[in-house]
Amino acid sequence: MSDKFDVIVIGGGPAGYHAAIRAAQLGLKTACVDAFVGKDGKQALGGTCLNVGCIPSKALLDSSKQFYGLTHNLPVHGIHVDNPRVDMAAFIGRKDKIVKQFTGGVAQLFKANKITSYFGKGRLLKGNRVEISGHDGSREIITATNVVLASGSVPIELPFARFDGKHIIDNAGALDLTAVPKRLGVIGAGVIGLELGSVWRRLGAEVTILEALPEFLGAADADIARIALKEFGKQGLAIKLGAKVAKAEVRGEEVEVTYVDGEGEHVFTVDKLLVAVGRRAYTEGLLAEDCGVRLDERGRIAVDEHCHTGVDGVWAVGDAVRGPMLAHKGFEEGIAVAEWIAGKAGHVAYDTMPWVIYTEPEIAWVGKTEKQLKEEGVPYKVGTFPFAAIGRAVAMNEAVGQVKMLAHAETDRILGVHMVGPGVSELIAECVVAMEFKGCAEDLARIVHAHPTLSEAVHEAALAVDKRAIHKGN
């Protein structure tokens, strides 16, 4: 039995490594157990986000954007490039280099903060003991006063479209294709489906996205979703709504996909099929039967509002618990739990959690949608402003989209902000800050925004709430 730790974190993804680092900063003797294996066969901290999620997908999105710009954007600027091509080895290699840089960075942070790192699968035993199963068959048990479960999530697999890693793939497989598929099918028009579908569409693939729900991006504001859907169609993404996939069969080097919509049954063939219907909490082998931790009806670790499991000294954070599966949500929960363990006032602002989809144009929002406010009977005002009237956006040749602000009709307090357009993944932060400080639309309307900038769209939308936008007829 090893020395007892103050904190053991199971999982080295966004929620886990933030919990471990913050705990160590607070003077707690900390260990982290993680089983993720990198391409080199060694431990790769950072979980799905750094290895096969947030970071590598953004690397490919940026690389593919550069290529797409050569033929679709640069000619508008009077710049012409003949016969552009993609070196796939370098294309994927750049992504791998970035991944290694960041996973290695987490390892260095662990070292700097004197966190003990264990390479293997962690299992919670009774009495806050953790069994570590190494990839080499070794077994070790360590113990702690507090255990933080941060096991993350895995892609949902459909029974009629099982992953084979070659023809039917998950997000990890879509990040490592060695050639641009002529035809790519995607099941699911969510964040993963749209982002990875965009990557390969920009490189020349024919991309068809099948979404079972009748509406596009139901979690987003309807006006924003409508603009995005129209623009994606112009880019060549064929998005079919209300399309329920019945089966997917590999035939030779192709996949035959059968789906049903309002017009009946359809069959089409693709070279690769990406299944991106969501993710589920990963808890396989995580909990011993007598450890006392419960799972909810959706297989997530049951916790209270402070991420406590009800078992003394056992906490859970990130994708494995209730709430949105967002890396930054995991960040904040991990930090908050470390602070609660240390007797400090941890906090997670769930009501002002921003959402971002890194397509072109980008989509971002925070707070309530107009539909939600109507359903809740909350009186509200709306202010919108298009990027087409923003000088910086037009000069960039990225003038698609708008900012939509929702404020309380009586108090003017900002209730939600929704954006689609250039750089909105960054613009949303101003609105999050305003909402965190209980700001009103008037507050943002009174703040001086530099000209010319994209942020002027936020300023004008705030002015438009009271029908006084300068560069738009109200």
UniProtKB/TrEMBL annotation:
<dbReference type="Pfam" id="PF02852">
    <property type="entry name" value="Pyr_redox_dim"/>
</dbReference>
<protein>
    <recommendedName>
        <fullName>Dihydrolipoyl dehydrogenase</fullName>
        <ecNumber>1.8.1.4</ecNumber>
    </recommendedName>
</protein>
<keyword id="KW-0274">FAD</keyword>
<dbReference type="GO" id="GO:0005737">
    <property type="term" value="C:cytoplasm"/>
</dbReference>
<keyword id="KW-1015">Disulfide bond</keyword>
<feature type="binding site">
    <location>
        <position position="278"/>
    </location>
    <ligand>
        <name>NAD(+)</name>
    </ligand>
</feature>
<dbReference type="InterPro" id="IPR023753">
    <property type="entry name" value="FAD/NAD-binding_dom"/>
</dbReference>
<dbReference type="InterPro" id="IPR016156">
    <property type="entry name" value="FAD/NAD-linked_Rdtase_dimer_sf"/>
</dbReference>
<dbReference type="GO" id="GO:0004148">
    <property type="term" value="F:dihydrolipoyl dehydrogenase (NADH) activity"/>
</dbReference>
<dbReference type="InterPro" id="IPR006258">
    <property type="entry name" value="Lipoamide_DH"/>
</dbReference>
<keyword id="KW-0547">Nucleotide-binding</keyword>
<keyword id="KW-0520">NAD</keyword>
<feature type="binding site">
    <location>
        <position position="58"/>
    </location>
    <ligand>
        <name>FAD</name>
    </ligand>
</feature>
<feature type="binding site">
    <location>
        <position position="122"/>
    </location>
    <ligand>
        <name>FAD</name>
    </ligand>
</feature>
<feature type="binding site">
    <location>
        <begin position="188"/>
        <end position="195"/>
    </location>
    <ligand>
        <name>NAD(+)</name>
    </ligand>
</feature>
<dbReference type="InterPro" id="IPR004099">
    <property type="entry name" value="Pyr_nucl-diS_OxRdtase_dimer"/>
</dbReference>
<feature type="domain" description="FAD/NAD(P)-binding">
    <location>
        <begin position="5"/>
        <end position="334"/>
    </location>
</feature>
<keyword id="KW-0963">Cytoplasm</keyword>
<keyword id="KW-0676">Redox-active center</keyword>
<dbReference type="GO" id="GO:0006103">
    <property type="term" value="P:2-oxoglutarate metabolic process"/>
</dbReference>
<dbReference type="InterPro" id="IPR050151">
    <property type="entry name" value="Class-I_Pyr_Nuc-Dis_Oxidored"/>
</dbReference>
<feature type="binding site">
    <location>
        <position position="319"/>
    </location>
    <ligand>
        <name>FAD</name>
    </ligand>
</feature>
<dbReference type="Pfam" id="PF07992">
    <property type="entry name" value="Pyr_redox_2"/>
</dbReference>
<feature type="binding site">
    <location>
        <position position="211"/>
    </location>
    <ligand>
        <name>NAD(+)</name>
    </ligand>
</feature>
<feature type="binding site">
    <location>
        <begin position="325"/>
        <end position="328"/>
    </location>
    <ligand>
        <name>FAD</name>
    </ligand>
</feature>
<dbReference type="InterPro" id="IPR001100">
    <property type="entry name" value="Pyr_nuc-diS_OxRdtase"/>
</dbReference>
<dbReference type="GO" id="GO:0050660">
    <property type="term" value="F:flavin adenine dinucleotide binding"/>
</dbReference>
<dbReference type="InterPro" id="IPR036188">
    <property type="entry name" value="FAD/NAD-bd_sf"/>
</dbReference>
<keyword id="KW-0560">Oxidoreductase</keyword>
<feature type="disulfide bond" description="Redox-active">
    <location>
        <begin position="49"/>
        <end position="54"/>
    </location>
</feature>
<feature type="active site" description="Proton acceptor">
    <location>
        <position position="451"/>
    </location>
</feature>
<comment type="similarity">
    <text>Belongs to the class-I pyridine nucleotide-disulfide oxidoreductase family.</text>
</comment>
<keyword id="KW-0285">Flavoprotein</keyword>
<feature type="domain" description="Pyridine nucleotide-disulphide oxidoreductase dimerisation">
    <location>
        <begin position="353"/>
        <end position="462"/>
    </location>
</feature>
<dbReference type="InterPro" id="IPR012999">
    <property type="entry name" value="Pyr_OxRdtase_I_AS"/>
</dbReference>
